[in-house]
Amino acid sequence: MTDSNALDPEDRKIVTLARSARARNGVPEGAAVRDETGRTYVAGTVALDSLKLSALRTAVAMAVASGAKSLEAAAVVTEASSATAEDLAAVRDLGGAGTPVLLAGPDGEVRQTVSAT
What we know:
The protein has helices at residues 9-25, 55-65, 85-95; strands at 30-35, 40-44, 46-47, 52-53, 71-77, 100-104, 110-115. By secondary structure, the protein is an alpha+beta fold. A hairpin with a 4-residue loop joins strand 3 and strand 4 (52-53).
């Protein structure tokens, strides 16, 4: 478990944004990513008949579509105990192998930080 109070303010911000997206949209996951310029992209789970994306993959796609060249960090708020391999791959594809992914519970408490390896 990571002490949320010890988080960098910018990391705390993306966790808060991810949590807000999850609650506002009533979806299983909320995510936020921060690009190399400090811009943030926030998304919730997409669950259409024809398109299903996790919140984190949606946030990465939004960053790419907006011209981001890299990621500094990512956060996902979920009840799941770990990030999926597909989510980590999406973060790694844009941010590189060392990009931190903060995994938080619905209460916003960061349970772990993993690298997109």
